[in-house]
Amino acid sequence: TLTRWLCIYRKDSEKGFVGSGKRTTKNQTEADLKKRLRDLEEENKTLKKAMYIFAKDQKSYTSLSMNT
Fold first, then answer.
1. Per residue in 25-41, pLDDT tens?
2. Is residue 68 part of a domain?
3. In total, how many domains does the chain have?
4. Closest to 18 (Cα-Cα) out of 9, 7, 31, 26
5. Residue 29 domain-assigned?
6. Which residue segment(s) compose the domain that 60 sits in?
7. What are the coiled-coil residue ranges (predicted)?
8. CB within 8 Å of 15: residues ≥ 6 apart
C-alpha cells in the first residue's frame, strides 16, 4: 500500500491524495467563490434589514413631525 501511495505521489504530487484535505486549484477556487457568495448573501440580508428599520423609523419621524 505504501509503495502504491508513493507511486501515485510521484506521478502527480500536485493533486495529493483523495481525502487528504488538500484541494486542487480548481476546487479551491470553487470553494472560495462559494464562500464569497455566502458572505455577500449574508451582507445583502443585513442591508435589507437595516433598510427596513431605517424606513420604519423615517415613517415614524414623518408622522410625528406632521402632527406638530
1. 888 999 999 999 999 99
2. yes
3. 1
4. 9
5. no
6. 39-68
7. 23-50
8. 22, 24
Contacts of 44 (CB under 8 A, 6+ apart): none
For 5-14, the CB contacts below 8 A with 24+ separation are none
Residue 10 lies in a domain: no
pLDDT by residue for the chain (68 residues), tens only, comes to 888 888 877 887 666 566 666 777 888 999 999 999 999 999 999 999 999 998 887 777 666 666 65
Return the closest-CA partner of residue 1 out of 24, 12, 17: 17
Residue 63 located in a structural domain: yes
Q: Which positions ≥6 away from 63 have C-beta within 8 Å?
A: none
The enclosing H or E element of 66 equals helix 25-67
Asked whether the whole model's pTM tops 0.70, one would answer no
